[in-house]
Write a structure and sequence with these properties.
This protein has one domain: Thiol Ester Dehydrase, Chain A, CATH 3.10.129. Helix content is 24%, strand content 42%. 26% of the residues are buried. The mean pLDDT is 94.
Length: 140
């Protein structure tokens, strides 16, 4: 399904449309998202990109990276997400690159870097994810 989303054959989830982020690459334990940050759409009261937008961006990238290794009938939930904001952004293209650092049977660690158009590090995040199976995975 994630590969079909990259190709445009499957619509993105509503939150991706709301924010304007898009999945542009998916691989084995890796994902890349892009967001064209706009001051008129994504700014906080101080005029810079709202930190919650960056959190949504990294959460989506890390979630897709983790999901890329799930088996049939498995899903997951994020147990913890941490982000460091390293550079203010007003507008421009942002790229979030996420990769699984360690994928265990039940618990995994994923990291994500957000870069601006010049390649400068804007934010770094990590998440702990838990794989759900059987009854725990139903309806998710």
């Amino acid at each position: 399904m994630l590969e079909a989303m990259v190709r445009g054959e499957v619509p993105p989830p509503p939150v991706a449309e709301t924010i304007g982020m898009r999945l542009v690459e998916i691989g084995d334990g890796e994902a890349r998202f892009e967001l064209e940050a706009e001051q008129s759409r994504h700014a906080n009261p101080m005029g810079t990109l709202h930190g919650g937008i960056l959190c949504d961006l990294v959460d989506a990238a890390m979630g897709c990276a983790y999901a890329s290794r799930l088996g049939e009938g498995e899903t997951f939930t994020t147990l913890e997400l941490k982000i460091n904001f390293l550079k203010p952004v007003w507008s421009g293209l942002l790229t979030a690159r996420a990769a699984i650092v360690r994928g265990g049977r039940t618990i995994g660690l994923v990291e994500c870097d957000v870069l601006d158009a010049a390649g400068a590090l804007v934010a770094r995040a990590s998440a702990t994810c838990m794989t759900l199976r059987g009854e725990l995975a139903r309806g998710r």
